[in-house]
Design goal:
Blueprint lengths: L10 H27 L4 H13 L1 H4 L17 H4 L17 H10 L17 H13 L3 H17 L2
Length: about 160
Amino acid sequence: MLRPVARTDASFPARRFRQARATAAALGLILAAALLAGCHERDVARGAALYTEHCATCHGPNGRGQNPARPWGSLVPEQEGWIAPALDMRGHCYVHPRRQLFSIIRDGSPFKGTTMLAFKSKLSDNQILALVAYLETLWDKNTRREYEEREKLYSRKTP
């Protein structure tokens, strides 16, 4: 007959912490694998709908940015304010690895004073991945091919 073990030993909290840390690391690896593997085509339609709902107001209905004449955004944001950049191939979105695109959408811009706020309270990780998949469709075939080649290099450099 098995008897319940009293959890009074000092190692129990440490063991639970190690288990929680291992679980969080595994979830992080799953997310990283999804980002490195690229997004599936079925996510593109979902990403397009999410883009229209959450992103088009600032980045434009076709990813052309707030000021299509300035696709890279503000030149001197301290003087002229922040301008949402184009997300199509005229802007600089395609130079960022998927991990960084994911992080910017989830956590907001790392630059203070921008209007790019975090969406982690509004969108799930899967929805953010779908948005990234949609953004990639805004680029031409050559840009996507070069992007995939860079992604392979990034995946070799990071664990």
